[in-house]
TrEMBL record:
Catalytic activity: beta-D-fructose 1-phosphate + ATP = beta-D-fructose 1,6-bisphosphate + ADP + H(+)
SUPFAM superfamilies registered for this protein in UniProt: Ribokinase-like
CDD domains: FruK_PfkB_like (cd01164)
Carbohydrate kinase PfkB domain boundaries: 9-282
Role this protein plays: Catalyzes the ATP-dependent phosphorylation of fructose-l-phosphate to fructose-l,6-bisphosphate.
Protein name from the UniProt record: Phosphofructokinase
Gene Ontology molecular function: any one: kinase activity
InterPro entries reported in the protein's UniProt record: 1-PFruKinase, Carboh/pur_kinase_PfkB_CS, PfkB_dom, Ribokinase-like, Tagatose/fructose_Pkinase
Recorded family membership: Belongs to the carbohydrate kinase PfkB family.
Any matching Pfam family: PfkB
Keyword vocabulary terms for this entry: ATP-binding, Kinase, Nucleotide-binding, Transferase
Organism per entry: Gluconacetobacter sacchari DSM 12717
């Protein structure tokens, strides 16, 4: 299967570590790092680490494209980003002793002609042997129904489409006649779509079932440290793995998406899709930036994932439960 990721609003992630974040106080940074990011870029980076050939589409500001170019060169990601005038946004991630706080910028306004030129190139790439991952927010200048329209164009060419976004672009993509094949909301995104609180796995299962009824094949709801819920057809299961170390939670959802893609391209059944994507997500938590540990480490994590289905708990791949 040919794989592509799409990032209309990539970001350079600037991660600042402080001892303890207190609003209104002066803080000393303990560490600062920058990496090329944005959801689609993170997915491509983790797929490349796993050894899957991936093509990255999207829009890149010409003024600060170097870190993206370096990432693509280092990981042999095929760079099909359209260069546009100006700079790609810089998002702030503040890590303290308890949590990560994200401050995401809107991004510079993009030109409708550039958006359509890139959309047409993505459409040219699409075919019945392809899986295309549409990730992240849309920058100002992009129509909010961009994903809805693109999904229809890509699916018409026979491509499978995975969508991971939020807010109005998610709403519009899910209310169109042609929904994506796969969606990965987190609890907040699912609640926003449903217009009702979604706090527990039971709530998530009830609400996510409505997405299946709308024609989505696979719904994965990520729930942070509580793991993730996987729904397809008549099967619903949860997968969870305790993280040994958490260096950065930024991009854990993107790593999970990369794991989903890897599992789907191997034709795995739902329990193994859940195991592999959870292992990708938890493996990434131990590393800074959108990176996976080696294949053996990910496989070892996969064997430790606890899968629970309809109230019943199965052992993980290596016979372990947590
Ligand atoms: N603290 C944690 N402990 C164990 N697993 C975690 C933890 N945080 C995240 N995960 C794993 O990573 C997956 C994705 O995390 P999360 O739900 O935070 O995604 P997200 O909100 O899409 O994140 P992002 O937008 O930063 O990519 C979870 O479903 C879970 O499997
Ligand atoms: O503003 P968006 O597009 O919703 O999210 C952007 C972002 O938070 O997503 C990634 C983590 O998932 C980061 O690399 C990036 O900064």
């Amino acid at each position: 299967m040919r794989i592509a990721t799409v990032s209309f609003n990539p970001a350079i992630d600037q991660t600042i570590t402080v001892d303890h974040l207190t609003p209104g106080e002066v803080h000393r940074a303990r560490a600062v790092r920058q990496n090329a990011g944005g959801k689609g870029v993170n997915v491509a980076s983790c797929l490349a680490d796993w050894g899957i050939a991936v093509t990255a589409f999207g829009l890149l500001g010409r003024d600060n494209a170097e870190s993206f170019q370096a990432l693509c060169a280092e990981k042999q990601i095929v760079d099909r980003f359209l260069r546009i005038p100006g700079a790609t946004r810089v998002n702030l991630k503040i890590v303290d002793d308890r949590d990560t706080t994200d401050i995401n910028m809107d991004g510079a306004t993009v030109d409708a002609v550039a958006v359509e030129r890139q959309s047409a190139q993505i459409e040219d790439f699409a075919g019945s042997d392809s899986l295309i991952v549409l990730s992240g927010s849309l920058p100002p200048g992009c129509p909010p129904d961009l994903y809805a329209g693109l999904i229809a164009r890509l699916r018409k060419k026979g491509a499978r489409v995975l969508l991971d976004t939020s807010g109005t672009p998610l709403m519009l993509a899910l209310q169109g006649d042609t929904p994506p094949d796969i969606v990965k909301p987190n609890l907040r995104e699912l609640a926003d779509w449903a217009g009702e609180p979604v706090a527990t796995a039971d709530d998530a299962q009830r609400v996510a079932a409505r997405l299946l009824a709308r024609g989505v094949d696979l719904v994965v709801v990520s729930m942070g440290a509580d793991g993730a819920l996987f729904l397809s057809g008549t099967t619903a299961l949860t997968a969870r793995l305790r993280a040994e170390s958490v260096t950065s939670t930024v991009g854990a959802g993107d790593s999970m998406v990369a794991g989903l893609v890897a599992a789907l391209s191997d034709g795995l059944a739902l329990p193994d899709i859940a195991r592999l994507s959870t292992a990708f997500a938890v493996g990434k938590l131990g590393l800074a930036g959108p990176n996976l540990p080696g294949r053996d480490a990910v496989r070892a994590l996969m064997g430790k994932v606890t899968i629970a289905t309809a109230g019943r708990t199965e052992a993980g791949g290596a016979g372990e439960t947590t």
